[in-house]
């Protein structure tokens, strides 16, 4: 039994399947917190809020495919273990594509009663590597935030710079206009009249 706390994010549109999967996980991980969503938008939100140790996803979803979920996971959290739990991968080429696209594995729903045995090695690896992976994951998230902050700063700086440039151009235009009509050294206009 794995005792370490684990955050698991599941993308599943069938409530009875998600209940069965949760039950199977509870057989091997007593402190697993499992959050469930069923679409890409909610997955993106959950991914940024939960910082999961493991992502489980169905392949066929009503509003997107499992590959859409995997692609977003690879973009936002590439170090997180990703496993498809699905009834639709019965094509060997499709199964190979999921692995080539970054999934750690896939488990067929027809074998859901043995899910705990199939998923246990992944959970043990996550649990054993947690002390090493979590600090790295934290640094990656901090780096992403820093990059985002720098991008925002540069965007604002560029906007301010454009504003200053526009102001300088206006001042130069005003000076040119004034220069045409005034002699700045004597404060007289070109006709010699004091201003």
UniProtKB/TrEMBL annotation:
Citing just one GO molecular function, the answer is: phosphorelay response regulator activity
Against CDD domains, the record matches this protein to:
REC
User: Under which name does UniProt file this protein?
Assistant: Response regulator receiver domain-containing protein
Task: State whether keyword Cell cycle applies.
Answer: no
Q: Which domain of life is it from?
A: Bacteria
Pfam family of this protein, just one?
Response_reg
Q: Which InterPro entries match?
A: 2C-system_Tx_regulators, CheY-like_superfamily, Sig_transdc_resp-reg_receiver
Domain Response regulatory stretches: 7-124
Keyword terms, alphabetized: Phosphoprotein
4-aspartylphosphate modified-residue sites: 58
């Amino acid at each position: 039994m794995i005792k370490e706390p684990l955050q698991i994010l599941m993308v599943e549109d069938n409530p009875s399947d998600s209940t069965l999967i949760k039950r199977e996980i509870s057989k091997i991980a007593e402190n697993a917190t499992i959050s469930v969503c069923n679409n890409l938008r909610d997955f993106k939100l959950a991914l940024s809020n939960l910082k999961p140790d493991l992502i489980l996803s169905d392949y066929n979803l009503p509003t997107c495919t499992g590959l859409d979920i995997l692609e977003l996971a690879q973009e936002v959290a590439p170090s997180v273990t990703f496993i498809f739990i699905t009834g639709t991968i019965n094509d060997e080429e499709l199964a190979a594509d999921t692995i080539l696209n970054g999934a750690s594995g896939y488990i067929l729903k027809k074998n859901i009663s043995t899910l705990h045995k199939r998923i246990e090695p992944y959970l043990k690896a996550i649990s054993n590597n947690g002390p090493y992976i979590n600090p790295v994951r934290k640094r990656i998230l901090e780096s992403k935030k820093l990059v985002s902050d720098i991008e925002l700063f540069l965007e604002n700086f560029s906007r301010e710079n454009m504003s200053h440039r526009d102001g300088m151009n206006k001042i130069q235009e005003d000076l040119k206009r004034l220069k045409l009509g005034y002699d700045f050294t004597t404060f007289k206009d070109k006709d010699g009249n004091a201003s």
